[in-house]
Each structure stands twice: as C-alpha cells, then as structure tokens.
Design a protein that fits this description.
With about 250 residues, this protein is α/β, with parallel strands linked by helices. Helix content is about 40%, strand content about 25%. InterPro entries: Carb_Metab_HTH_regulators, DeoR-like_C, DeoR_HTH, NagB/RpiA_transferase-like, Tscrpt_reg_HTH_DeoR_CS, WH-like_DNA-bd_sf, WH_DNA-bd_sf.
C-alpha cells in the first residue's frame, strides 16, 4: 500500500472511530509502528489530526484567525448563543470568554438585562457598551491576537479575585476522553483560571469543535457542568458526555 493510500485509510478510521492507536494501525497495514508514527507526524503537520500519546485524535477545524471565523455565518452558533443567553439570571456575575460563539451569546442578551459581565475579550467588552444595565469588568493582560483575548500572569491574577455565578467557556476541541482543549497554552491557563472562579462552567460547542482536539488541554470534560451543542449533534457523542456526568443542552 502506498503511503498516500495508508494516510487516506487512517483518516477514514479516524472519522469512523474518533481516535486511532499506532499499534493496531501497524498491525492492520502490516508496517512498523515507526512507519505509522511517521505518518501521524506528517499528517499532524498538515493539520489533518492531533497527535496524542499512543495515537491520534481528529484535529479541530476551529483554529482559523478570529477575523476569518467571524465572517463565517453559522445558524448553529447563533442558536447556541441564544440558548446560552437564556441561562443568565438577572443580577448574576457572568464570565464570558472570547470567540465567535461568545459573540453570538452577547448579541442575544436582552437590552434591559441587569448583570455584571467579566471578560478578557475586548470584543465582548465593546459589544456590551450599548447595554445600559450591564456592568463590564475588563480583565487585562497581553493581547493574544489570534483569538482577541487577554492572557498572561496579569489576567490570571485579576481573575483570582472574582467569584462568578456562571462562566461561558469557548474551546476549539471537545472530546469525551481527551477533554476540553484549545490552540494556545496561555489561553488554556486563563480558561482554567476562569472556570476555577465560577460556580458553574458552560461550554459553548458548535459542530466544528465536537469529537476533536487541539494541542493544549484545558481539562477533562467534567470541568464543565453543561455543554451547549447544536440540535443536530450526534446522540452517540452527547450520550458519552452525559455518561461522564455533564449535562447537555441542545440549542
């Protein structure tokens, strides 16, 4: 079998099973594990998968720059944003992450909502300027331009002084076994810090983020109490989350 044929077959197995392991692949194709590991390295370099210990997981497609993602309309993201906005109770202290799905959440907030929003996203903060009854607390730090969020030690220090009622987390990967992940190490630290300071964490997970993984782990799926997904999400995936003790809301 040619290398290109083997790689195509690996991708088909990855799509079917949600993960692949090097040792079984080597046995299936009659090649050494070193050959399979080389295939996986090359495929990871091409952005086709995410390598993990012993094998690989589907790579998240939600890693394009913010400006590109913002131009891609998604009815699914809009529905997730609407469902998330409905979870907010007046008077709460709400943490809102950066990202395009979070932008949809903000877009669906009632104009008369009375609440305090804590965010490390300049985009979210500016979007709330026209909400007269929402107090906005901006977390500062180094601007991570890819996602337009503030990260670093200064951000984590500021977060440590806040007790929030609910945190809406954006991710680039949600996988039943690999957990929650994102494409930047410092961003992962900030997301963990936000989750640690909130009574409830809700992950906003559009279809492109499901059953996929990125390079940096935020935590197990159980770091979230709730995951909001699109209505058409495969029940096998949501059942895996619910089996882990995570509530699933279909938007």
């Amino acid at each position: 079998m040619l290398t290109t044929q083997r790689k195509k077959a690996i991708l088909e197995l990855l799509t079917r099973d949600g993960q692949v392991l090097a040792a079984p692949l080597a046995a299936t194709f009659g090649v050494s594990e070193d050959t399979i590991r080389r295939d996986l390295r090359e495929m990871a370099a091409d952005g086709l998968l995410q390598r993990v210990h012993g094998g690989a997981l589907p790579a998240s497609s939600a890693v394009a720059p913010f400006s590109t993602r913002r131009t891609l309309e998604s009815s699914g993201k809009s529905a997730i944003g609407m469902a998330a906005a409905a979870m907010i109770v007046p008077g709460q202290i709400v943490m809102i992450d950066g990202g395009t799905t979070s932008a949809e959440l903000v877009r669906h907030l009632p104009s008369n909502l009375v609440a305090t929003v804590v965010t490390h996203s300049p985009t979210v903060a500016v979007a709330l300027v026209d909400h007269p009854s929402i107090e906005v607390i901006m977390i500062g730090g180094r601007l991570y331009k890819h996602s337009i969020v503030n990260v670093g030690a200064a951000a984590i220090e500021a977060i440590s002084h806040i007790h929030a009622d609910i945190y809406f987390m954006g991710v680039t990967g949600v996988h039943p076994t690999a957990g929650l992940s994102t494409g930047d190490l410092e961003e992962a630290y900030v997301k963990r810090a936000l989750a640690a300071r909130s009574a409830e964490t809700v992950v906003l997970a559009s279809m492109d983020k499901l059953n996929a993984a990125s390079a940096y782990s935020i935590g197990d799926v159980t770091l979230a109490q709730t995951v909001v997904v699109e209505r058409s999400t495969d029940s096998a995936f949501t059942e895996a989350l619910e089996a882990a003790g995570v509530s699933v809301v279909r938007a």
